[in-house]
Design a protein that fits this description.
six-stranded mixed sheet; rod-shaped; alpha+beta; 487 residues; 10 helices; four-stranded antiparallel sheet
Length: 487
């Protein structure tokens, strides 16, 4: 049961429980009083009335009879008393007459009896008395009953007033008890939920980001605890991403430092050779100058890659996206690069395409993507001459570009990390001299910038395959400008 329902039912019970118990106390008291006084009993014979009314009628009868005794003889009084007592013997009533506290007309001694208790009263009897008295002229009559009765019907009002007072006191007491019980009933669950959440907060505060709240109750805290667990999971992902970025930055410093130091060391050595006259012939000096020029170009390439990646990473790189024939554009790029990479030991097969395939790309940056993938294959080929193939196809409204080589491939567990900045998958690829590790990271950033995706897989026959997908559609549905080639 959720907390809202608990509060709803507790508010109802806060009213119902005291009311029911108070009514039970009031009417139960009345019933107890009736049992105690015999008001619920009926008289035998023709008097089918309750004892109180019967008692009052008998008292009125005795009073009327006593008012006539002022001018009658003692024997007449005795006859009246005997007749009265005989008449009401079945009703368990007894009338006694006293004059100056002395039994009159043969009345037995009164001390210790209910008659005596009535005669000793200074005021008429109240609740639960067994007898009452009346003083009429020179005589004092005492009427006693075998059952407890009230003195007069007026006592019903007293009963109601006192019963109401008792019920009010009981109601206040019951409300306090009920409130205590219902408060525990409602707030115990709230306190439990708050304690559970607080424990989770303390765990996360202390760095235990793997902690998850196991809350099995079906109330409002269930959703809150679920949101807490989701928050903790996202926080853990954020921390892991920050640690990953930190590792990447350290690798950046290490890789770039080495990559910059290597050409700088060569440039410095060849400049010193020229200064010291080590290159004595014109041919040697020309070779030294050529080497310095090449190393300077390597430095420029590294710096350009760093600048390019920083702009891609911050999202500030401008793209010129166009709807083009991907097959034609890629074929043109591959044909232009075939000779250069052939001289570096990489044979590139002509691009294969299944008809005209359209995609939304930036053709100039697509050239950069392809070059970075080719560079990766050149760096890590394990043969004198490596091979690389390029294919284009269309699948379910998307254009696909697949570039595969016949190199050593990478371990399966390294495939998801291959496009991380400065990541090198194994020892053979962990040599900073083989590159800073920015090439595939730049390719992935650019593919994502085109609105596409990139992933790597090992080729069953050996080698690494990189597949890129880009938004594509039928040229009749395009809104951009169709372009079959790019110069």
């Amino acid at each position: 049961m959720d907390i809202k329902r608990r509060l709803f039912f507790s508010n109802i019970l806060m009213i119902v429980i005291p009311l029911v118990i108070s009514l039970a106390v009031f009417f139960g008291g009345l019933h107890f009083y009736a049992l105690l006084t015999g008001l619920n009993e009926e008289q035998p014979g023709e008097r089918r009335r309750n004892r109180e009314l019967y008692f009052m009628e008998a008292l009125d009868e005795a009073r009327a009879m006593a008012e006539k005794w002022q001018n009658v003889s003692s024997s007449a009084i005795m006859e009246d008393v005997a007749g009265f007592n005989g008449k009401h013997a079945d009703g368990r009533l007894l009338l006694a007459v006293y004059k100056d506290n002395v039994p009159f007309a043969g009345t037995p001694p009164w001390r210790g009896s209910s008659v005596g208790q009535a005669l000793e009263m200074t005021e008429p009897a109240s609740f639960f008395s067994r007898a009452t008295f009346q003083t009429i002229g020179d005589y004092r009559i005492a009427l006693s009953s075998g059952s407890r009765v009230a003195r007069s019907p007026q006592n019903y009002k007293d009963i109601m007033r006192k019963g109401a007072a008792v019920s009010l006191i009981c109601s206040v007491f019951i409300i306090l008890i009920t409130n205590r019980f219902l408060t525990r009933f409602v707030f115990k669950r709230i306190v439990h939920g708050m304690d559970t959440l607080a424990h989770g907060v303390y765990q996360v505060r202390d760095g235990n980001l793997d902690f998850r709240i196991d809350y099995r109750e079906n109330d409002e805290f269930s959703q809150v605890c679920g949101e807490f667990n989701e928050m903790a999971a996202k926080l853990l992902e954020s921390v892991e991403a920050r640690r990953k970025d930190e590792r990447s930055r350290k690798e950046l410093i290490a890789g770039i430092s080495h990559d910059l130091r290597t050409p700088l060391t060569s440039i410095k050595a060849y400049v010193e050779g020229l200064e010291q006259g080590v290159a004595a012939t014109p041919e040697a000096r020309e070779r030294y100058m050529g080497t310095i020029k090449n190393k300077t170009a390597d430095l420029e390439h590294i710096i350009d890659n760093l600048f390019l990646f920083s702009k891609l990473d911050t999202g500030e790189f401008p793209y010129d996206i166009e709807r083009v024939d991907l097959a034609a554009a890629v074929s043109e790029i591959v044909d232009a690069l075939k000779e250069e990479y052939g001289n570096r030991g990489l044979d590139i097969s002509p691009a294969r395409a299944s008809g005209r395939v359209y995609a939304d790309i930036d053709v100039a940056q697509m050239r950069c993507v392809i070059i970075n993938i080719f560079e990766n294959s050149v760096k890590y080929k394990d043969k004198a001459r490596g091979k690389i193939s390029v294919s284009i196809s269309e699948e379910k409204g998307t254009a696909s570009l697949i570039i595969s080589d016949d190199g050593p491939g990478v371990p399966e567990e390294a495939l998801p990390k291959l496009f991380d900045v400065f990541y090198r998958s194994d020892e053979s690829r962990n040599n900073p001299g083989q590159g800073s590790g920015l090439g595939l990271a730049i390719a992935a950033k650019m593919a994502e910038g085109f609105g596409g995706s990139i992933k790597a897989a090992n080729v069953p026959e050996g080698g690494l395959s990189i597949k890129m997908t880009f938004p594509g559609s039928d040229p009749k549905q395009r809104n951009g400008k169709e372009k079959n080639s790019h110069s």
